[in-house]
From TrEMBL:
Family label: Belongs to the glycosyl hydrolase 13 family.
SMART domains: Aamy
Coiled coil: none
Organism this protein belongs to: Nocardiopsis rhodophaea
Gene3D superfamilies associated with the record: E-set domains of sugar-utilizing enzymes (1.10.10.760), Glycosidases (3.20.20.80), Immunoglobulins (2.60.40.10)
Keyword Cytoplasm: yes
EC number annotated for this UniProt entry: 3.2.1.141
Name of the featured protein: Malto-oligosyltrehalose trehalohydrolase
Domain of life assignment: Bacteria
Length: 598
């Protein structure tokens, strides 16, 4: 019969299961642990199929589908991973420590919104100095356009983007250019349309704010956990990925002695050993719990890294002056310096937004947890897209302060991440959008979004209609604006910052016990001590150099008085291998200087 003729599905509570394939319905035999099996003559690697449960006449897609060419409500299709002609045999991976990440959304990175079009823009990322591309979710969801967090089939790649072959070509193109790829995956819930998994078995138990909660510790949860582990390994292995970003792991309700995250970490470590290249697991967690990134042998969960929203909030508040919602606690002069020093602002301290004590401290003075385990960023899809208008920081913050924020992120001991378009202060917003075909669901999403923001004081007319195709179109990057000011100058600063970071290992040193931050009383003047290097950053009306506690031997990079200065000695002459000063960048506002001292 061969491997393609064998069909299997987990449906422990059903009395009868049939597979619909090759023009007929085929009865399946009950196996062990709730599994059903059938052999179908004539089935091959491109066979469409679906399952029929008990007496329900509606054919359902495979919960573990590898491809959905007809959408999430249609039949699944077999897919032969071995048939793809990879060209990255020499790829040895890209480790997270020392890397710069770039978060992008396939559907708005280019007007076409496809893997092929995105691959055509990869040279820009290479020129910028990016190491790892973090791709927002590409699993199958209902409709053409959406963020991807409403996916319902974790193993199937969204067909409008280009399907599984398209994603593989994108990853292959990244590896050809020396770029690693991290994929954002969502295990904590399913989207509202096409979520058929619960009809097959106890995949979910309870609710999250976004949908049903994964059953990780109730009856039947052994197979559910196995599904997550297998999906993780399959994505990494079959798509040659270099890591996964795990969405909102704080929403994974798991009371077992060995948490799912620790199991995932062990599984991925074993896979990395077999593939002989590094694989990363990056968690998004709202818990401020150092155990998330503590190694398993030290009783942690073993994640390679986690997003650190406190670092974002402190930077955002310092640059924008916003004080509403969760930004309120960060609107104090010492918040940015304190968060830079200690990773978490809320570390067993009171959070007014939550109305309770939150978090636990990172032992930064012991050297046990390196800074590369925490991602630092000025903007992300969440922090931009979950604003009512989807406005980026560049809409309200001048280029000078933005450059200062970028310098702090890229010169900190943390792993830097950029959000697509940030590097040229993109003028386009990035709004929440969806394209659910069901008009009832579409209306519910539209009304729910407006109610959510009305509760925060936004007028309904200020909230773009997420189902209007123009909302997605407004969110597409405008690549031609890179040649115009001030975008061109901002892009030059980002390129220069990443180049300096690469050229001087001190700026990527992750040792938190060797990292020092000095700040003025009002917190507007910061100095980051990075070995023999100093980043002096001015967010106020005074020269950044005023904060330096030692004379500068070399100016590695400076943005001041409307110019970018690179490679100049303290007497103003170009240093060895440097460039002459005076490249006009027109960045009014704040300034920064990176110098070598001593």
């Amino acid at each position: 019969m061969g491997e393609w003729g064998r069909f299997s599905v987990w449906a422990p509570g059903r009395d009868q299961v049939r597979v619909q394939a090759c023009g007929a319905d085929h009865a399946m035999a009950r196996g062990e642990n709730g599994w059903w099996h059938a052999d179908v003559p004539g089935a091959g690697p491109d066979t469409d199929y679906a399952f029929l449960l008990d007496d329900d006449p509606t054919p359902l897609p495979d919960p573990r589908s590898q491809r959905q060419p007809h959408g999430v409500h249609g039949p699944s299709r077999r897919y032969d991973h071995a048939a793809f002609p990879w060209s990255d045999a020499a790829w040895t991976g890209r480790a997270l420590p020392g890397s710069v990440l770039y978060e992008l959304h396939i559907g708005t990175f280019t007007p076409e919104g496809t893997f092929e079009a995105a691959a055509g823009r990869l040279d820009h990322l290479v020129d910028l100095g990016i190491d790892l591309v973090e791709v927002m979710p590409v699993n199958a969801f209902d409709g053409t356009h959406g963020w991807g967090y409403d996916g319902v089939l974790w193993g199937a790649v969204h067909e409008p983007y280009g399907g599984p072959d398209g994603f593989k070509r994108f990853v292959d193109a990244c590896h050809t250019r020396g770029l690693g790829v991290v994929l954002d995956v969502v295990y904590n819930h399913l989207g509202p349309s096409g979520a058929y998994l619960p009809r097959f078995g106890p995949y979910f138990d309870g609710e999250t704010p976004w949908g049903p909660s994964l059953n990780l510790d109730g009856p039947g949860s052994d197979e559910v956990r196995r599904y997550v582990l297998d999906t993780t390994a399959d994505l990494l292995r079959h798509y040659h990925l270099d890591g996964l970003r795990l969405d909102a792991v704080h929403a994974l309700r798991d009371h077992r002695a060995v948490p799912l995250l620790a199991e995932l970490s062990a599984e991925v470590d074993a896979l990395a050993a077999g593939l002989r290249r590094p694989l990363a697991l990056i968690a998004e967690s709202d818990l401020n719990d150092p155990r998330t990134v503590t190694s398993r042998d030290a009783d942690g969960h073993g994640m390679t890294a986690q997003w650190s929203d406190d670092l974002h909030h402190a930077l955002h508040t310092a640059l924008t002056g916003e004080k509403h919602g969760y930004y309120a606690d960060f609107a104090v002069p010492a918040s940015l310096a304190r968060t830079l020093r200690h990773v978490f602002f809320h570390a067993g301290t009171y959070s007014s937004f939550r109305g309770r004590t939150h978090g636990a401290p990172v032992a930064t003075g012991t050297g046990r947890l390196p800074g590369h385990r925490f991602l630092a960023y000025l903007q992300t899809h969440d922090q931009v897209g979950n604003r009512a208008r989807g406005d980026r920081m560049a809409a309200s913050v001048p280029p000078g302060p933005l450059a200062c924020g970028a310098a702090i992120v890229l010169c900190s001991p943390y792993t830097p991440m950029l959000f697509m378009g940030e590097e040229w202060a993109a003028s386009t917003p990035w709004c929440f959008f969806a394209s659910f075909p069901d008009p009832v669901l579409a209306a519910a999403v539209r009304d729910g979004r407006r109610r959510e923001f009305a509760a925060h004081g936004w007028a309904e007319e200020d909230v773009p209609d997420p189902l209007d195709p123009r909302t997605r179109e407004r969110s597409v990057l405008r690549w031609d604006e890179r040649a115009a000011e001030p975008h061109r100058s901002v892009l030059e600063v980002y390129r220069a910052l990443i180049a300096v970071r690469r050229a001087h290992p001190e700026l990527a040193d992750p040792r938190l016990d060797r990292f020092r931050v000095d700040a003025s009383e009002d917190g507007r003047l910061l100095v980051l001590h990075r070995g023999r290097l100093r980043l002096a950053c001015n967010l106020g009306p005074f020269p950044a150099e005023a904060a330096l506690d030692a004379p500068a031997r070399d100016v590695l990079l400076a943005v001041r008085e409307g110019t970018v200065v690179r490679g100049t000695a303290s007497d103003g002459t170009p240093s060895d291998g440097g460039e002459a000063p005076g490249t006009t960048v027109r960045l009014p506002g704040a300034s920064f200087t990176i110098v070598a001292v001593g």
